[in-house]
Every structure is written in C-alpha cells, then in structure tokens.
Sequence to fold (473 residues):
Amino acid sequence: MFVPYTGPSNQRNPKARRAANAFKAARGASRAKGGHGTLQWVQVPDSSSEDSSESSTNETPSSLVIRASKSSSSRAAEPAPLPKFVLGGQKFYPYHGMGGKGPLTTTALSRYFDILLPDDCKAQGIDVSRGAAYGGGLLKWIAQHDGVLHGLTAFALCSLETVGKTDAIYQAILHHRHKILEDVHRRLERRQVDDVLIQAICLLIPVDDYLGYVEYGPVHRSGLSNIVKIRGGFRQVGNSDMAFGNLLQTSMLVVMSMIDFHVQTRIAPMFLPDERPMASISLSSEMQKRIFALPSGFQTLVHAGILSTNVLVIVESYEAWLLQVKDVELKDRATWRPQLLSELNNVEKCVVVTLVCLADDISSLGFHAAAPIFRKPKQRSEALTDVPELWADPALVDCVIWMSTVISTPRNSRSIDPDFRKEVLKRSIRGRDFALDWEQIQRKLRRFFYAEERAGDWEKAWNLALGEPWLFE
Fold:
C-alpha cells in the first residue's frame, strides 16, 4: 500500500496502462482461438524515454574493483563453471566485461554482490557457505542470461537511487528494465518456461513497483502464477540449480505477497461517512476482554466505532510478533506481515500499513540496503495525507500523529527528504496548540505502539518540526 493504483506511473510513463489492457486483450483473443493464453501477458513498452536511455555509458571496466583470491581455499570454494569470476574477502566480484551491457552495469552489480547479497542472505537466514553457493549461482546466471543480469542491475540501481537520486541513475534503471522486459518477452514467445524466467520476473516486479509502474503489478502477479503452473507447480521452482533450491521459491513468495499487500490495502477512492456501527452494538465479554488488551489509543477508536473488530486480529498478530522477537537482536529479527482481511475500511488499512512500517524498522529489514525499495516512506506519507477520513475526524488526531511519525521516519533516514518529513509531521499537528514539545507528542505515541528502539529518531524528527516558527505564532 500506498503505492496508489492511479497515479505515479501515469506521470512518468503514460503508456504503462497498456500492460493491463494488453493482458486482457491477449487473453481474450487466445481464448477465442482456442489457444494457450498463459504466456501472453507481458508486453514490451515502446516508451521513448526507455529507448533513449539505451545510449552508451561512459563507465569503464576499471571502475569495478576486482580482487584475486588470496588462498587455495578461496579458489576451492569457487563454483567450477565460473572461471571468469573470483571469490575474495567473502565477496563476489562480477566479470568486468559486463560493463558493456548497459549504463552503470558494473557499478550496480558490484553494489549487489558486495552489499545487497549479504543482506539478502541474512534476511533469509542463509549461512555463509550457502550464501556463497547462492552468489555463485547468480554469477553463473548473469554470465549466461541477460534477463537476470539486467534484473539484478536494475534492482541494485533502485537501491542506489535512494542514496543519491540522479537523472542518470533513473535513466539507467529504465534502460535495464526495458532489457528485462525484452528478455522475458522473448522467452515467453519461445515458451521457454524455466527458473531463469521466474527469476527475471521476480526481479522485474520490485523494479516496476519502485518506479511507480503499479499497473504492471497485478498483471505480472497473474502471469507469474500461470508460469509456475506450467513449470510443474510451486515445488518445481528452483530445482534446476542446486545453488538456488527453495531460495527462488522464497523470492517468488516475497514479490507476490508484496503485490497482494498493495492491492488489499488500496485506499477506496470515495469518502464514505463513518456510520460508527460499534457504538450501538453490545459486545460479548470475550470481545470486551480482547479490546481491553489493546493499547489505549486503539481501545478508544474501537469503542468509538472508527475501527471495527476486524482489525483486532491484525493488531493481536502484531502484538504476538513483538512478544516472539523481544529477546532477538534487531538485525536478526524476521519482520512481520499480517494476514489481511477484505473487510477493512480506509482507516484500518492505514493502521495496518503503519504497523508494517514499524515492524520493518525494528527488524532486520530496516537494516537492509534495499529497504527503501519496500519501505516507501515518501509514497506512503503522501498517500496518508490524501485519506480524507483521517483528517476530518477529531477523534483520530492522536492516531494520525502516530501514523505520520512511524511512516515518515524510516530507519534509513536517507530514503526520505527531511524537509518533506517535516511537512508531514507539521500537518499532523497544524492548528493544535498542545503539540509544543516532544514529551507531549511522546505521550500520544504511547497510546498506540511505541518502539523504544525508534524513539531517538522520532524525537529528532519532531524536534526539527516543532522548532518551526509557525507553531508558536
């Protein structure tokens, strides 16, 4: 959520919607002809911005540091089919000849294998030896399959763009994304359904999501599901190479669940007046006990009828996760994701997304170099300010302050403009004279879920916002 399914992609690529339309048309045509429509869903966009990005790069192979193996044990650990690659210092270094594959290729691949891959392995609980095998498998695939090479490059550049956003990086991402689509399209035309195709699509999905090409997400999701069926089912995914195994299955589940989460937490376009059904309904003693166990802020909203009992399951799931990981170091914690319900209202969807952001910030995902790709603090903050229900009801003041604080203050502070965050926080308290210092804000945050691990960053962000002259006029 909070990647609106109506906006950003239309601003950067007005032809992006064609993917969904082409999917429907191709499927309908295929059925009319009695043919197989499963492999017809990907269309290669002809955006001029992407074509123009294929211009040559000034990058030279010398920009990539290549180390030789320092010991025979390191050489022994190197996968046999990879004579062009060396393993040194427990890091993989791609063959420098790949620099000719497109703009910033060697820079991106170096970032992936040096920084992102270790984080990926840690997030999936992979030990050093398994991680080395996994990295070796990826190196083999990028040497043999352009779709995987361009996929890893684009994904790494998306994480790099959050560190230092430039037009050159953005154009490079578009170039490599275009190349992924071309490779996937060729494989589909040849009906070449294999793990390489699945890996390429699993890399394409988060790239499109990061760029805001959200119309593609559900289309890719549907196509990927059909690909897996043709592949022989979920258990067959990843079995073509021992280096991958169930790791490719995990990658596929991650990207598919990401799309599902966006779709299920999509904000309803119309503002419907809240009927406050809970206020007039008598609750069972068991339900009252469950409500009483919630943080006080949630109790108030449930009793006021703003939150329904549907959200209880999700909030209780989050509390159970907190209890489970309380003795685990932040960098070693697996993050939390809820089982979503279709009956959630807009306010409840905002609560769920806020909890997901908070879980990411106090788990290993918050330390991942690619976390901003999935955390989306700016996009989610913007969407939060566009939910009229949140800003029209005085009873939601404290909740809005909590949501704004969590969503706009990610662990990776470089992934959001501090001035933008300041404006989000200022809006959450504008015209309310109680918000004169951090202690008062802190008391309101504690009415919901308050993370001591994040208190320092939250206090710093609020002190910057509270220091603005307008507040004291």
